[in-house]
Amino acid sequence: MPLRTAPLEVLADVYSPELANRRDVLVWLPPSYQSNRRSYPVLYMHDGQNLFDPATSFAGDWGLGRVMDGAARRGLEAIVVAIANRGAERLDEYGPFPDPSVNGGGRGAAYSAFVAGTLKRLIDRRFRTRPGRDHTVIAGSSMGGLISLYALFRHPRVYGGAGVLSPSLWFGGGAIFSSVDRAAFVPARIYLDIGALEGTEHVANARRMRDLLVAKGYRPEQELRWLESRSGCHNERSWGRRFARALPWLLSPR
What we know:
The protein is of the alpha/beta class. It is built from seven helices and eight strands; from the N terminus they run βββαβααβαβαβαβα.
């Protein structure tokens, strides 16, 4: 079967009262969406410019359309909500904590409230979603991975899974470690990965987070899936490949 080339639905200038700004949101609908009345799980993903189109991406795209089409051919379908970042404001919004070393961060709570509140209500009204937490996943890479992990614990009634790829755990002096440590256990699926080629410091940070999650009660291959990719890099192509492997697990409620 050839790959589908359906266009993305663009929700232009979505307003966030939590952040007092606007952004475009891209919505990818499963191949079967128009031919039945089923409802679908939803993936909320950051850096929407980098997921589907190399022309709008920072440095190549994830090839997420191909990933989702391939999953659909195996019977696994979901709606993808690709949330565009706001360029210069990206660090502020994806950073849960201020980081003076990069002059950014601190608006992560407001951004995560926008996604879990205003945006999710909009998506659930306009599309046939399965709105329960078991069928709602948040995912991203780098700073997007950091804010995904933060959002899972910040909004435990909203998300049943988080895809945390190459997370920027160093941000804010590593404040995410104490934040996760203090948080209550959230019954959820967490996919956490790192590429061995991303540098020893980042690999060490990811291993530390893995160990912290295990200590909190996330059992490997039950609530926590860990991947340390020997050929993994810190780029869109690598994240797309790794996400393709993580997708079936993230969309399987425990």
